[in-house]
């Protein structure tokens, strides 16, 4: 697969703005584990090889288990994820597939498990990774050597 244009070189101010969102997320209460689950699950759903490679490596470096990463796409069929993580994963799936809308049940589960402030931070993380996925996929961003 040939890389297309390089957005970071052609639109550095846009990249800087995106990194601003990433930097903001680092100041929130969002846990590292939750952040990695969001990044990996959305990247799985979007089929973004670059982001999957990067975020699974980062998740492992921060202590995430291989078993949970292997079973993330089947999270509903396991007991490996906490109720909070299940709420986050459900929200990640529905926001990623936004044309189907976020159901009232998923939203209510999110608020009940996480509270409104934390859920807002989760939604911003989901929005961020979906933007990164779309940029990487649209430009065929290659995996690092």
TrEMBL record:
Residues spanning the membrane: none
Matching Pfam families: CMD
SUPFAM superfamilies per record: AhpD-like (SSF69118)
N-terminal signal peptide: none
Domain Carboxymuconolactone decarboxylase-like: 14-94
Name listed for the protein in its UniProt record: Carboxymuconolactone decarboxylase family protein
